[in-house]
Amino acid sequence: MTGNIRYFMKNASTYVLWILVVVYTVVKLANQVFPLHIPIPFVVLITIVFGLLHGAMSYKWSGILTFIVICLVVSNLLENTSVMTGFPFGHYYYTDVIGPKLFLVPLLIGPSYCAIGYLAWVLGTVLIGDINRTSSAFTTFAVPFIASFAMVAWDLGFDPTASTINHFWIWEQGGGYFGVPLTNFLGWYFTVYVIFQLFALFLRLRRTDSNKEEEAFPRSFYAQAIIMYAVTGLGFVLAYLSESSNTLVTDAMGVVWHTKSIAEAEATVGIFTMIFVASLSSVKLLQRSAVATHKHQLKHDQVKRLPGKSL
């Protein structure tokens, strides 16, 4: 009976995840093409719910809640530290545009780390391998290393618009990437690497039921996260294609930028970072399936050749 309930809950969760993927795709892309003005917190909420449910299936509730706590604590700590000291992102401050703050950082920032961070993490495991008690030291450190690049790719696609155009935050000393400094992206990599590495060590060291250590998921399970990540990157492309105006904006150092140029650069970055990583992850999934099918066929052929055996 318990097995039937678990099977039902797993199937139900899978359907809900696909619904969330579709809703996120429609909301994210439609919000770029049409002036729907869907609030950012609502878009973030969709990805948070997806990450919680998807992560609970992968790592149980204790695992995904640990991931959330690590994200919220580390991101808020280092963001506040940077606002006060300039480390690790550089010198900047948040305006009041995106809502109330926890200390010096808006409440929305932490959940955003969690939402896209989980997607980047899943892509890292697709490219390198899952992490559990039997994982090698290489895998335990390689997944955070790769996932951090996937996460920073997202910031490359939105930071110039968010800061230089929309003034969600202000870079006090400007920067060469449309008003954003290189230190920001180095700081992003450092911050998310710390988050991912702590989570990887948690998965590597936590005690689990050895009989339930490995639970196989179909390709579609990982494809859900890949699609969510790819749609996020595609959003930058659609934002550029649907942008008709071209105005001038000035960063904190007085440097003037064209908004159309910013959108075009973000679209280019989105294609060759986020969409590339999503494509690479998709190919990896297909490769795994092809290898598994090939091995199964070889085993099948070997059994057929054994004397006295028939299928």
Search tags:
about 300 residues; mainly alpha; two-stranded antiparallel sheet; 7 helices; globular
Q: Care to describe what's here?
A:
By secondary structure, the protein is mainly alpha-helical. It has one domain (2-207, 216-302). It is 71% helix and 5% strand. The chain has seven helices and six strands. The protein has helices spanning 2-33, 40-85, 109-128, 137-165, 182-205, 219-241, 259-305; strands at 92-94, 101-102, 105-106, 169-171, 248-250, 256-258. The strands form three sheets. Strands 1-4 form a two-stranded antiparallel ribbon. Strand 2 (101-102) and strand 3 (105-106) form a beta hairpin. Helix 3 (109-128) packs across helix 6 (219-241) and helix 3 (109-128) runs parallel beside helix 7. The longest helix is centred in the last third of the chain and has 47 residues, at 259-305. The chain is globular, with a radius of gyration of 22 Å. The mean pLDDT is 92.
Q: Name the average pLDDT.
A: 92
Strand line-up of the largest beta sheet = 1-4
Tell me the Rg in angstroms. Answer: 22 Å
The fraction of residues assigned to DSSP E strands is 5-15%
The helical percent reads over 70%
- How many domains? The number is 1
Class by helix and strand content? mainly alpha
Termini separation comes to 33 Å
| Chain oligomer state | single chain
Largest sheet: 2 strands, antiparallel
Protein name: Carotenoid biosynthesis protein
InterPro entries: CruF-like
Pfam families: Caroten_synth
Transmembrane segments: 12-30, 36-54, 61-78, 98-123, 135-154, 186-205, 221-241, 267-286
